[in-house]
Write a structure and sequence with these properties.
- This protein is an all-beta fold.
- The protein has one domain.
- About 0% of the residues lie in helices and about 30% in strands.
- It has one helix spanning about 205, and strands spanning about 30, 45-55, 55-65, 80-90, 105-110, 140-145, 155, 180, 185-190, 190-200, 210, 215-220, 230-235, 245.
- The strands form three sheets. Strands 4, 5, 6, 7, 8, 12 and 13 form a seven-stranded antiparallel beta sheet that branches. The protein has a five-stranded antiparallel beta sheet with strand order 1-2-3-10-9, with no helix packed on it.
- Strand 12 (about 215-220) and strand 13 (about 230-235) form a beta hairpin.
- The protein is globular.
- The two termini are about 25 Å apart.
- Mean pLDDT is about 90; it is low at about 5-25.
Length: about 250
């Protein structure tokens, strides 16, 4: 049974957060991370958390600078273009959001990429064109696996082999990778990034482990096999991608 409530049921929730960008003492629970002067401040993770209230899960990340201020440079083409992202790798089974069971590491990602649009059902900038919004921060479910073609020890978004038709979410955007574009609007407020997602079965989130990652990804020059690789991990909340965070703790 599909676990996610449809996009139309999303409840708008007002956020009230401090404007202090460098005081992570106010962040409670989750994974606390030391400030790292060697990481660009908008991607320097100081706090990562997932919490639930009712049927809504809140994915929260705080950095030591202004979240979302940096975006990739425009290249004018899909092949070789860059993606910036704030990512929550989780222990949630890929099946619970519409993919095949045990397809890889399910992660929520908040991304921006000015050279292509992968949210064809949504008009984020409100101009009547649903195909020109990739530069606006937006959310995805992605399924990740180690892929040596992306580099030694590197992760990539799982490719869909030509001719295969795996189980996919209804809001799959048509790219030949395990990517979903469900339309959950991220909120960036000073140093924080948050996404609030309603679930029919909140238990799949309440029992989950998680981590936090900021990273750059790149579209392969061949635009498939692999299509999208993680090429620059900027910061990892745990330091070792061990998913030590526990929801609501």
């Amino acid at each position: 049974m599909k676990k996610l409530i449809s996009v139309a049921t999303v409840i708008a929730v007002a956020l009230s957060l401090s404007v202090c960008a460098h005081d992570n003492a106010k962040h409670k629970g989750g994974i606390m991370s030391a400030k790292n002067e060697t990481v660009l401040a908008p991607f320097d993770i100081v706090h990562t958390k997932i919490s639930t209230a009712g049927n809504v899960a809140t994915f929260h990340m705080a950095v030591s600078g202004q979240a979302g201020i940096n975006k990739p440079a425009v290249t004018g083409k899909l092949a070789g273009s860059d993606v910036f992202s704030y990512v929550w790798p989780t222990s949630i089974n890929s099946y619970d959001v519409g993919f095949e069971k045990n397809a890889g590491i399910l992660a929520l990602a908040v991304t921006t990429h000015p050279d292509f649009d992968d949210t064809p059902l949504f008009d984020e900038n409100g101009d009547g064109n649903t195909a020109n919004d990739g530069n606006i921060w937006h959310s995805h479910w992605v399924v990740l696996q180690p892929n040596e073609l992306c580099g030694k020890g590197a992760l990539g978004v799982v490719d869909i082999p030509e001719g295969k038709s795996p189980r996919l979410p209804k809001t799959w955007p048509g790219f030949p990778i395990l990517l979903d574009s469900p339309g959950w609007n991220p909120t960036m407020n000073a140093e924080t990034v948050e996404v609030r997602i309603p679930f029919e079965d909140i238990g799949v989130v309440a029992g989950a482990s998680f981590d936090g990652v900021t990273a750059g990804l790149r579209v392969n020059q061949s635009v498939h096999a692999p299509l999208l690789c993680v090429v620059d991990v900027m910061d990892v909340a745990s330091g070792d991608l061990s998913l030590p965070g526990k929801t609501n703790i």
